[in-house]
């Protein structure tokens, strides 16, 4: 090392170099694990053969009786915090 650098600066430089090496090693390990997980996920995806939906889903409608409508309205009144 250079003679005009103090021992504390040398120690700091060594610690910084060791931390940088540890950070790079950790980053490489994380990236490799993510790549392996992503490859496994792509291999397990089995719905590739199913076509995508071309448009919005069709509107579904259920006919309710008058008693069912009244029961639903009562339930909504019970659950509505503004009504209490």
Question: Can you walk through the features of this model?
Answer:
With 84 residues, the chain is mainly alpha-helical. It has a domain at 1-48. The chain contains 2 helices and no strands. The chain has helices at 7-44, 66-79. The protein is elongated. The mean pLDDT is 83.
Keywords for this structure?
mainly alpha, 84 residues, 0% strand, Secreted protein, membrane, single chain, transmembrane helix
Short précis:
The chain is mainly alpha-helical and 84 residues long.
Secondary-structure blueprint:
Layout: H1 7-44, H2 66-79
In whole angstroms, how far apart are the ends?
Answer: 78 Å
Structure annotation, total helices: 2
Could you give a short account of the major beta sheet?
none
Overall mean pLDDT:
83
Protein name: Secreted protein
Keywords: Membrane, Transmembrane, Transmembrane helix
Organism: Streptomyces violascens
Transmembrane segments: 6-28
């Amino acid at each position: 090392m250079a003679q005009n650098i103090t021992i504390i600066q040398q120690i700091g430089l060594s610690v910084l170099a060791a931390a940088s090496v540890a950070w790079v090693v950790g980053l490489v390990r994380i990236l490799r694990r993510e790549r392996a997980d992503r490859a496994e996920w792509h291999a397990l995806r089995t719905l590739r053969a199913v076509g995508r939906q071309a448009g919005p889903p069709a509107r579904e409608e259920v006919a309710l009786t008058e008693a069912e409508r009244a029961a639903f309205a009562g339930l909504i009144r019970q659950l509505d915090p503004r009504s209490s």
